[in-house]
Amino acid sequence: MQLHPAPVCCENACGGSGMTCNGFDCNDLPLSQCNYEYGTGKEFDATGKHCMLADMKRYMTESQPDLAQTFECIANVGTYGSGDEKVMLSATSALGDPQNAPGGCDEGFLRDDALLVLVFITDEEDDMADDGKGSPGEPAEWFQAVVAAKGGEEKSAVVLGLVGDSNLPMGLCPPGGDPNGGDGMGAEASPRLQSFVDMFSNGVIGSVCAADYTPFFAEAVGVIDTACDEFEPPG
Q: Is 183's pLDDT higher than 70?
């Protein structure tokens, strides 16, 4: 599953014989350069439906009407797209200066006075960047990028990851999982992503192959509650 920057279905429809996509004329699709960049907030669900985020932002705030319904819309990312997910490229780009600086696609998203909670769910390892595959850097560099985004305060971030775990003694994923080949089942062992999460004091790792994610998120809520209690905004 890849969080592709642009609504693929509309691109495909308008690139073929279609004249409209989800009510938009193909010559008037509400797309900007931000729709094609990694790390920018989503505006469309997997079908190309616009999620109508408030205040012309690419993320939700407390002023968002119908918060639950809007979250359901933007969380519907689908399963179509490249098998090269680049999870950490998306995460570190979302927290970097180009997107968060004045005039950036996600201006105002990253705040000094707020705890950062990073959640990723993937059935693939984020391999070393090679021939355009995988995210640049090593787990330690991804860690430093997140910490830098929080002003050097490592405990100001909570990182939650649901990944392939067939490399672990009590892993739930079957060995040799290949989500992009064969029967498309299972998940790749993800020692790099596991290592990244383990670097955080407030890190929680779980198996993407679990039948029920409730225990994982119950543990995560406890970690977030504690982190919130201990969080001290700068200044």
A: no
